[in-house]
Amino acid sequence: MVTRNGAVVNDSLMTTTMHGSPLVAKMEPLLPAGTTTQSIAVAVPKVHVEQSLRRSTWWHTMANIMGEVMGTGVLGLPAQLAALGWVLGLGCCIGFGVLSGYSGELLARTQQLYPTEATSYAETARLLTGPRFGRFTRIALCLSWVLLGPYYLVATAESLGILDRAFGLGLSPLKLSLVACGCTFAGTQLRTMHVISYAALLSTVAMAAAAAITLAKLLLDERAQIDASDGGTSLWPPDGAFLPLYGHASSFILGFQGQDIFLEMMREMRVPAQFSKANGGAMTLMTIVYLLTVAVAYHKCGRGVATFLPNSLEAGAAKTVVAALLAVHTLIAYVVCLQPLHRLLQESVFPRVTASAASASFALSWATVTAAQLALAFFIANAVPSFADLQSLIGAMTGAPIVFGWPAFFFLRASVASGTRVSMFEWFMCAVVFLGLMFPLFTLLGTFTAVQNIVDERAI
Fold first, then answer.
1. CATH class entry, domain 50-459
2. What is the DSSP letter of 2?
3. What average pLDDT does the chain have?
């Protein structure tokens, strides 16, 4: 239950009994008839957030958002633009950037209504709806996070493979994966978002530098002009097929996906109310980077643009530098994206070990769960040959719910429960655009398209 002043009172609250308190004595005239001051239960919220964790400023959080959201997927977006054409492609890039920013704002306003309880998607779902929906949300997000581990591990290993070939080391794919695991394990020992924010800033710089070098090389590469003459560009989808467009558009949704970790970021902010500034700044910068990347690459290479943009580069120093920057980025992205999962596992497996950065027992428990998760990621990455198809399917299934589904539902549910007025615009955006259109449309049709691609590839 939420009182009129916004205080949260529910079954997760503690109660204390006060006898003979002067404060209680002053309250006696205000009590209902028949109520005495001998035993008054006063609800005291459990404060889930340790004040020692609240160290991040808004720019720390902005760096975390960009480090977590702006992944190597940006280098695959030009190929999606080529399939959509200029109008739909640029429209998806700008439109989903704006909608994703609004989605983050909905989460920020939900957190303001439940400042001590809304610390994660799962906890907020449990708080607003009940334990069953909370468990469902936790399982769905854990599945998404678990599958991101092999994705980033493979990406890191592939980047190291380019470096291996450039320097002639001759390492096998298995050894490259082990090297990637070793480097990633060291990074996962950064245990708080505040500390990770510095690495996330480095990751963002590395990703931006890799994209900039790639685009600069394309602009100066005459070979790209020849490729453009082979494919050309188009205002509208060149193939004319309707259904596959949802799969290509979903890639832009995934390019802005990261809302499932936003509440954890707010949890560690000195002033959580400043999250809107961090969210707006991050989404604006990412939209600009995405627009420059897809526009330049598609203009230079046309439909001949590679599905992974660095592959459009000739072998040489530029490609080697890009590979090194991407290795740094994907390694840190693993650390940022899986931090909530690591925290959940640590709290579940070692419930008596408190989250203290100076505690040796906590450091050991954290190292144990991160090593176990990394071993699982290593196994999946090396044992599942169709992992890329599986990741595409999971991305289509979770992208729209994470960006459009949960944030809109949380905001509406929290506002109604707290008696907070919701404007007509907010109702329209949440109920009609997010929950009624974007969420079901892209989840269902995007998943169908991903399954169809898997079936088609296996039939070849």
1. mainly alpha
2. B
3. 80
